[in-house]
Amino acid sequence: MRKIATEEAFTIPEIAEAIRTRVRQGGPNLDLLLLKQLYEPSSTTPAASESNQVSNRDRAAKDMLPRLLDLDKVRLENMDTNGVDMHILSLVMPGVQLFERAQATELASLANDRLSETIRRYPKRFAGLASFAPQDPNAAAKEMERAIKKLKLHGFIVNSHTANAYLDDAQFSPILEAAEALGAPLYIHPRAPSDGMAAPFQDYRLEGAVWGYGVETATHILRLIFGGIFDRFPKLQVVIGHMGEALPFWLGRLDFMGAPGARAGRKNQLKPSEYFGRNITITTSGVEDPLALRYCIDKIGVSNIMWAIDYPFQPTAPAVAFIKTAALSETERAKIAYGNAERIFKIKT
Fold this sequence. Notes:
This is Amidohydrolase. This protein is of the alpha/beta class.
């Protein structure tokens, strides 16, 4: 069975170095906690009670960055060993969204050029999502057009909020207009909660994938729904990972509380559940739970779900075992494993 993994991260040396510089500058942004671990593994001597934990974390961090930078040897070996046909590559969180405007625009363009070159070398193994700099929405729209029409990429990646602003903000309209006009999906990937919602996540390291990522990105999607974005841009296609950031499990309550005309639904024309299917697709990245998958199939439809690994942050073998053994019909399995990805991202077989 063909397997296309739809949320697979990479980076380039120039962006890695720019993030390392940004990490050294410090600041309150919660993303810097994870980025420091990834780009500046601890050089201090931990307390005896923490030494094993810190040592293991540092080893994992030191292994992660080389995997993100590698687009040839280790990645392809991992794919071949596990029977993965294709990675849809996207620039690792937080992309270029921590940089000032000119630097972000330049690095996004460079990353897209490198991504396009990689796909040309391995057209059967890789597809790609273009990054852009939301800091300059008009320049972002131009880069999005270049990425689709010239570089032949397959969609876009944005790491949720930028400077604590979300895509329902009027300043970002050129980005949404471009995505809809180009007919290419926009993958909204998590990052740590924005500064205004950050405080409760700090004490127990809740800011990352354990909780904060899902809460933050689900909040972003609800802002788009209740802000009427999918009514202004009815053909806009958005993809979210991690089994829909838990939103499918809330749709009954969201429909009740956020139906058109309700207090939260004053700006949306449809029920929240109706935007799933028309405008929103989910992937399974990092959630290998057959009960959750079955629920999502029954709730939002099998045609709106794609398989993903979340490489290199999640191991490949369990993700492959999950899609191979989950209690699915063969038609359902084929759609989730590759068919929906080929259709949504316009990947030629």
